[in-house]
UniProtKB/TrEMBL annotation:
It is found in: Cell membrane. SUPFAM superfamilies: HydB/Nqo4-like. It catalyses: a quinone + NADH + 5 H(+)(in) = a quinol + NAD(+) + 4 H(+)(out). The gene is nuoD. This is NADH-quinone oxidoreductase subunit D. GO terms for molecular function: NAD binding; NADH dehydrogenase (quinone) (non-electrogenic) activity; quinone binding. Residues 138-309, 311-385 form the NADH-quinone oxidoreductase subunit D domain. NDH-1 is composed of 14 different subunits. Subunits NuoB, C, D, E, F, and G constitute the peripheral sector of the complex. Keywords: Cell membrane, Membrane, NAD, Quinone, Translocase, Transport. The keyword Ion transport does not apply.
Length: 385
């Protein structure tokens, strides 16, 4: 008697394919785990490795450039200092430098040196934030307490002169809002000395940690060619051997009279980016001390220029760029002779720096993604504007 057999195939899952795997598309954000803000990353994964990455921006876009066009040249300063909220003083500088250039205005010497001093203190405040938060993102909790302790020393002197902790609004077209308070330079020098003496605590705590070094060495390597192709600037570019710093190479304010030490590395990995930031703090503290020495030797004098009640900028255009803490920040100002700019285009550091993620992330493990993101040292408001 013949035996009848029946073959039955059991379902193996909807869409599954035999002897093949499909790439997975993963959306990180717009509130991604590294909590930098509303940045979205669209990743294509091949197993645990990133095959492609697309940064998608715009979730915090506030239309700042259009708002510039309906504010006069005094009012735009308060808008300009907000896109990179960790570098407010430096953001203000670019605007007032552009307007002063269009006006052909010469700023008093005391204002030039005071601006340079405050720009370097703001740079240290910016870097200390990332020096504390980046280890936090790769699992080290303690460093952020040390970093914020040092930040408070400098925040105190910055708050004393301006009344603000983040948005200082101390720059004015023609100089600064008002003169430095009596005895302020002594208190600023003391704060700088305290921060410098304590930086070794942060250095020892982080750089001596073998786990931190293992998570960051040879991870997220960026090449010189990628930097030049995408217009990456600041500490990220210098960590890969791009020896360029506007303070030294195209001096503005008082930087032409200072010995600006440009910190560079050649590795281009997460560790090199962190080391650049750490060493830059020491370099900026030295520059701040040099500014205080020069201010002490200047005779009493004005800190700003008197302006007309209605400030109109002559017809024309100019581009003013500065070395902000996170990289090159530029303002392209076009005036038609009115009291408001016809066009004020912002070139922010973070916008260019983050675009290179599309080439930087592929080939890396998903587990290394946050370590790489954190080492790019960006502020989302500086991307979206």
């Amino acid at each position: 008697m013949a035996t009848v057999t029946t073959e039955r195939i059991v379902g193996i899952g909807a869409g599954a394919k035999e002897l093949a795997t499909e790439d997975m598309t993963l959306n990180i954000g717009p509130q991604h785990p590294s909590t930098h803000g509303v940045l979205r990353l669209r990743l294509t994964l091949d197993g645990e490795r990133i095959a492609s990455a697309e940064p998608i921006v715009g979730y915090m876009h506030r239309g700042a450039e259009k708002l510039f066009e309906v504010r006069d040249f005094r009012q735009i300063v308060v808008l300009a200092n907000r896109h990179d909220w960790l570098s407010a003083f430096s953001n203000e500088l670019g605007v007032v430098l552009a307007v002063e250039r269009m006006l052909g205005m010469e700023v008093p010497e005391r204002a030039v040196w005071a601006r340079t001093l405050l720009a370097e203190l703001n740079r240290v405040l910016n870097h200390l934030m990332f020096l504390g938060s980046y280890p936090l993102e790769v699992g080290a909790i303690t460093p952020i307490f040390y970093a914020f302790r040092e930040r408070e020393q400098l925040q105190r002197v910055m708050e004393e002169i301006s009344g603000g902790r983040m948005h200082y609004m101390f720059n004015r077209v023609g100089g600064l809002k008002e003169d430095l308070p009596a005895g302020w330079t002594t208190r600023a020098r003391d704060a700088i000395s305290v921060v410098r003496s304590r930086m070794s605590d942060i250095d020892d705590l982080i750089m001596g940690n073998e786990i931190f070094r293992a998570r960051t060495r040879d991870v997220g390597v960026i090449t010189r060619e990628q930097i030049l192709q995408y217009g990456v600037s600041g500490p990220i570019a210098r960590s890969a051997g791009v020896d360029f710093d506007l303070r030294r190479d195209e001096p503005y304010l008082a930087y032409g009279d200072l010995d600006v030490r440009v910190v560079t590395r050649s590795e281009g990995d997460c560790l090199a980016r962190f080391e650049c930031l750490l060493d830059q703090v020491h370099a900026s503290l030295d520059l701040a001390d040099a500014c205080l020495d020069r201010l002490a030797g200047l005779p009493p004098g004005p800190i700003n220029q008197r302006l007309p009640k209605v400030l109109k900028v002559p017809e024309g255009h100019t581009y003013a760029w500065t070395e902000n803490p996170l990289g090159i920040n530029g303002y392209y100002l076009v005036s038609r002779g009115e009291k408001t700019p016809w066009r004020l285009k912002l070139r922010s550091a973070s916008y260019n720096n983050i675009q290179v993620l599309s080439e930087l992330l592929p080939g890396n493990l998903v587990a290394d993604m946050i370590a790489i993101l954190g080492s790019m040292f960006f502020v989302v408001g500086d991307i979206d504007k």
